[in-house]
Specification:
This protein has ten helices and 16 strands. By secondary structure, the chain is an alpha/beta fold. It has two domains: 17-349, TIM Barrel (Alpha-Beta Barrel); 351-430, Golgi alpha-mannosidase II (Immunoglobulin-like). Strands 5-4-3-2-1-8-7-6 form an eight-stranded parallel β-sheet, with helices on both faces. It has a five-stranded antiparallel β-sheet with strand order 9-10-11-16-13, with helices on one face. Strand 4, helix 8 and strand 5 (232-235) form a beta-alpha-beta unit. It is globular and about 70 Å long. The structure holds 4-nitrophenyl 6-deoxy-alpha-L-galactopyranoside. 4-nitrophenyl 6-deoxy-alpha-L-galactopyranoside (JFZ) is lined by residues 47-48, 195, 198, 203-204, 236, 251, 275, 282. Belongs to the glycosyl hydrolase 29 family.
């Protein structure tokens, strides 16, 4: 009985007013930059290189001695994100390899012991605060390195030479110490983005994905909300949100689509976020040239907005501290696009109708934005159209009038040849 009562109390998380305000800010922001960067960038094989190549802890530790990103310029990175129209940055502070990108007292495997010797988390957080972007910290629950991580229940890290039995309570204390540092020494933190929970569960799609060991999330989440009540918590567990979480994420997928079999969870009422790579890699990959086209990236941002979700677009900068031009060009393209079309993305809600093959809808009060993404669409039918009458219908880019017909609750929009943009946005104004 005691246990049940305790669990019930823990499950009753009431977000603070600052947290609710932060959720609203987050939903209005719509577009963020994900940065996967660290010593794992050096081999140019992605952030899973330690696991994928069975690099032992001892050998992997050498990467710390090689990490010296002399061309890194935090101001330039944040400036590039800002010019891309992004409103926040989600930075890897510690990935599965266990390397801490800040001046942590809880582990020697950190940036201060590299030849670079500068707190990268601080440099980027400070610059975000200076340039008016919000900062989120990605933090891995899973660790391929530490002896206290309870590896015996996991399904990754074989061959990396870790001990079989961990010291779970110690590991939880370690994470709490690190999270306390991150939420104490870096100013306002907009969110913590957890990952690695899935290492202790059956894979996605399995009937039972209960973790084999207790992650102590109630305790960890309570600590975060105590230190910074506005701080939003998300967790890449590919499950429905757990108590204490403030937003829900979808990896390499738009909410509810489950295109890759990673996201069986249904979209919830919490703010939503889709994280997506620009090529096929999160961390720097020297051979991955499968870049999405600018049009594909616009489609992702627009369709995410159509679902009422944010797009967290990833870059994996190079080990020298530069962002590769293929990423910078695409970011600049999107920023330029948003200068014209931003009003149909920022501060909007998802459409009354979910995204369709032709495109999708976003809404803001009495204005509806119809995003025509399929250039072959000739006429668009919007069934159960919520406005009784339309005051005006026009192209966002040049105010040109668009022909519409509303009958029996169905709005028919006739496409015209001037609709040649990657996303042709038609503005429909409600007549009240
Ligand atoms: C995770 C990380 O492993 C990956 O490196 C990257 O940071 C991404 C954003 O998040 O991706 C996953 C999540 C779940 C599984 C594998 C990779 N899984 O369940 O096997």
């Amino acid at each position: 009985l005691c246990f049940t009562v305790f669990k019930t109390i823990q499950a009753q998380y009431t977000p603070a007013p600052q947290n609710l305000a932060a959720r609203q800010w987050f939903e209005d922001a719509r577009f963020g930059l994900f940065i996967h960067w660290g010593p794992f960038s050096i081999p140019g094989s992605g952030e899973w290189v330690m696991n994928n190549r069975n690099i032992t802890v001892k050998n992997y530790t050498r990467l710390m001695d090689f990490f010296n990103p002399i061309d890194f310029d935090a101001a330039a990175w944040v400036d590039a994100a800002k010019n891309a129209g992004m409103k926040y940055i989600t930075l890897i502070t510690r990935h599965h390899d266990g390397f801490s990108m800040w001046d942590t007292k809880a582990s020697d495997f950190n940036i201060m012991n590299s030849p670079y010797k500068k707190d990268i988390v601080k440099m980027i957080a400070d610059e975000c605060h200076k340039q008016g972007l919000k900062i989120f910290f990605y933090y891995s629950l899973l660790d391929w390195r530490r002896n206290d991580y309870s590896y015996w229940t996991g399904r990754t890290g074989q061959g990396t030479g870790r001990t079989v039995h961990g010291d779970w309570n110690n590991y939880i204390k370690f994470m709490e110490q690190q999270l306390t540092e991150l939420l104490t020494n870096y100013g306002e933190v907009a969110g913590i983005w957890f990952d690695g929970y899935w290492d202790q569960t059956e894979p996605e799609g399995a009937a039972d994905r209960t973790p084999r060991i207790d992650w102590h999330l109630d305790e960890i989440y309570a600590l975060i909300h105590k230190l910074q009540p506005q701080c939003l918590i998300g967790n890449n567990h590919h499950l429905s949100p757990l108590p204490g979480e403030d937003f829900q994420m979808f990896e390499q997928d738009l909410p509810g689509e489950n295109k890759g079999g990673l996201n069986y969870q249904k979209p919830s009422d919490l703010p939503l976020e889709s994280c997506v790579t620009m090529n096929n890699s999160w961390g720097f990959n020297l051979t991955d040239t499968s870049y999405k086209t600018p049009k594909q990236l616009i489609d992702l941002l627009v369709r995410a907005s159509g679902y009422g979700a944010n797009l967290l677009l990833n870059i994996g900068p190079m080990p020298n501290g530069k962002i590769q031009p293929e990423f910078l060009e695409r970011m600049a393209y999107m920023g330029n696009w948003l200068k014209t079309y931003g009003e149909s993305i920022y501060g909007t809600k998802g459409g009354y109708m979910r995204p369709q093959t032709w495109g999708c809808i976003t809404q803001k009060n009495d204005t509806m934005f119809v995003h025509v993404l399929d250039k072959k669409a000739t006429s668009i039918k919007l069934e159960n159209f919520p406005f009784k009458k339309i005051a005006r219908a026009y192209l966002l880019k040049n105010n040109a009038i668009v022909q519409t017909q509303l009958s029996n609750g169905t709005l028919t929009i006739t496409a015209n040849p001037a609709m040649d943009e990657p996303d042709e946005v038609i503005v429909l104004v409600n007549k009240k």
